[in-house]
Design goal:
- This protein is mainly beta.
- The protein is built from seven helices and 31 strands.
- The strands form six sheets. The chain has a nine-stranded antiparallel beta sheet, with no helix packed on it. The chain has a six-stranded mixed beta sheet with strand order 11-10-15-14-13-12, with no helix packed on it.
- A hairpin with a 6-residue loop joins strand 3 and strand 4.
- The protein binds MU-OXO-diiron and calcium ion (CA) (3 copies).
- It holds the Pfam family PhoX.
- It comes from Jiella mangrovi.
Length: 594
């Protein structure tokens, strides 16, 4: 175990006590105010939220479901006025629609969807772009903000970059292979230095059903991505989600989407140069010589860590000059050696095994089947790569590996078999250059309860019974170089605690010390945080509150935590649980965490 001296931590806040109950908890001396709930109006004409009378049209004018990534794009450099961008990853039908769950023989059953329900679900996906302003110390939504916008599963988008227009992307609705309807399962994301919003498409396989026509060339491709999966019933009402009718549609998802938030009519771009996989996030940073480097996780057991380096350089004086930087560059996949070195292997057509003999006729094929290309290059299969955060102060990069209970064969970078709690890998890019193709790595922390010897957790000895965590998912390195980690999957049943936001020391004697700053209500996952540039506000997202613990008659399946079920954040009998974004500020003002 790493040693940490008393007082060596960068964080001096009083820790929250770990536990589980109906509501959220923030460290003493801080406020956590609800800013936006599922269903809240975003425009002057948005209908009032009424969960019993919801329509697709109303939902498209309201804040969507299951807020995940939160970004803040300052207006004129302000930390008190800006555009908030929020991904709406997916929908929980059993928590959204009254009366659709019945219980037979103790088993909960969700009624089949009708078209209206499906269209509400599609309108609740995507993202929100909304102006916000701090007034009298409290954040407010500016409902008549000129650039407020909802993006949904039906917003028109353009495919750009090396795979755009390829035959494998053409459908009966789009003979050009360049025009797509909407985005789905946008998990984490990013904001670029030129102020665009990046939405990463993660588990797109869940939206497709039906069978590929006999002998279709995509069979092997789709198998590698788990398509179809049929979690959603959209394909019963919209042919494009049915493989038997539109065999190429799944190739149009699994990309990184870039949105210009300065123009509410801009067409979002799916940037194919960044590869096609289950993109967790797209945190990014400018390298020493001006290239922009995107760190990309593919969240599946035994999948890979990637980065993309733009061919061009960032121009801080000319926003327009940066708007297509993401169409040209090199996509790399990581190989972690057991001796603590690592290499970034380029996914470039014609190099190594990425040739016609292996089915890659062009760079488009390499990108459409990114996973297969990375398999052939011998990349290191990881324990579910989630968010990846670069630290501009040190040239280090933090990789959240959430868990992998199927791992039987540990290696140095994934050192535990049956890895239930995950770990964090710290990469040091050669020369502190984010565009480098080599680096070194070490494990910052193996997660889990340090008091249980078999778990093998390696938090510092200063970490308290409240401060340890499992299942790291999102991360942020703030402008002070402080690491914040959000978790997903800490089960109250197994550990007596919910997910939360943790402050983690990375330097000096306190390295490996973790402290609990905020925790979510029962059933929820923690997403974010996103600090304002001055570090006085942290925006966090509480996703799927009450999942597995709800009891609102007609809305949910029976709770297995009946005494702890919740209707957060309204706590009203006629309101369901509502995923929400919160703004955390210090009472009396000042920097968060100290
Ligand atoms: Fe949507 Fe990888 O979490
Ligand atoms: Ca999530
Ligand atoms: Ca995630
Ligand atoms: Ca996760």
């Amino acid at each position: 175990k790493a040693k940490a001296a008393e007082g060596g931590s960068k964080f001096t806040f009083t820790e929250v006590e770990a536990g589980v109950d109906q509501t959220h908890h923030v460290a003493e001396g801080y406020d956590a105010d609800v800013l936006l709930r599922w269903g809240d109006g975003l425009f002057p004409d948005s209908p009032e939220f009424d969960p019993t009378k919801q329509t697709p049209e109303a939902q498209a004018r309201q804040f969507g479901y299951n807020n995940d990534y939160v970004g803040f794009i300052p207006i004129d450099g302000s930390s008190e006025h800006g555009m908030l961008v929020v991904n709406h990853e997916y929908t929980n039908e059993h928590l959204m629609f009254p009366g659709i769950v019945t219980v037979k023989d103790g088993q909960a059953e969700v009624a089949p969807a009708d078209q209206k329900r499906v269209d509400i679900e599609m309108a609740a996906h995507g993202g929100t772009i909304v102006e916000i302003r701090k007034e009298g110390g409290k954040w407010q939504v500016v409902r008549d903000g000129a650039n407020n916008r909802r993006i949904t599963a039906t917003t028109e988008m353009e495919l750009t970059g090396p795979a755009a227009g390829h035959d494998r992307l053409k459908t009966s609705a789009d003979a050009t292979g360049k025009k797509v309807s909407g985005t789905v399962n946008n998990c984490a994301g990013g904001v670029t230095p030129w102020g665009t919003y990046i939405m990463a498409e993660e588990n797109f396989h869940g939206y497709f059903l039906g069978e590929l026509p006999e002998g279709n060339r995509e069979a092997e491709n789709y198998k590698r991505y788990g398509v179809p999966n049929g979690s959603y019933e959209w394909g019963r009402f919209h042919d494009r989600f049915d493989l038997s009718k539109e065999p190429n549609e799944p190739n149009r998802f699994g990309w990184v989407v870039e949105v210009d938030v300065d123009d509410p009519n801009s067409v979002p771009k799916k940037r194919t140069a960044l590869g096609r996989f289950k993109h967790e996030g797209a945190d990014n940073i400018v390298s020493k010589d001006g290239h922009v480097v995107f760190y990309l996780g593919d969240d599946e057991r035994f999948d890979y860590v990637y980065k993309f380096v733009t061919a061009g350089t960032y121009n801080p004086d000319d926003r327009a000059a940066n708007m297509d930087l993401l169409d040209e560059g090199t996509l790399y996949v990581a190989k972690f050696e057991d001796d603590g070195s690592m290499e970034w292997l380029p996914l470039t057509h014609g190099e190594g095994p990425l040739t016609a003999e292996n089915g890659f006729e062009s760079q488009a094929d390499v990108l459409i089947e990114t996973r297969k290309a990375a398999d052939l290059l011998g990349a290191t299969p990881m324990d579910r790569p989630e968010d990846i955060g670069p630290d501009g102060n040190t040239g280090r990069v933090y990789v959240m590996l959430t868990n992998n209970t199927k791992r039987k064969d540990p290696n140095a970078a994934n050192p535990r078999a049956d890895n239930a709690f995950g770990h964090i890998v710290e990469i040091a890019e050669d020369g502190g250059d984010f565009a480098a193709t080599k680096g070194t790595w070490e494990i910052l922390v193996k997660c889990g309860d340090p008091s249980v010897a078999e778990v093998g957790a390696t938090f510092s000895t200063e970490t308290t019974k409240d401060g340890w965590f499992g299942m790291p998912d999102n991360c942020a390195i703030d402008t002070d170089g402080r690491l914040w980690v959000s978790t997903d999957g800490n089960s109250p049943k197994d550990t007596g605690r919910t997910d939360g936001l943790f402050a983690v020391d990375t330097d000096g004697e306190a390295r490996g010390t973790s402290k609990l700053f905020f925790r979510v209500p029962i059933g929820a996952e923690m997403c974010g945080p996103l600090p304002t540039p001055d570090l006085t506000t942290f925006f966090v997202a509480v996703q799927h509150p009450g999942d597995g613990g709800e009891d609102w008659e007609g809305f949910g399946r029976p709770s297995y935590y009946e005494d702890l079920s919740t209707r957060w954040p309204d706590f009203k009998d006629d309101m369901p649980v509502r995923p929400s974004v919160l703004a955390i500020t210090k009472q009396g003002g000042g920097k968060i965490g100290v």
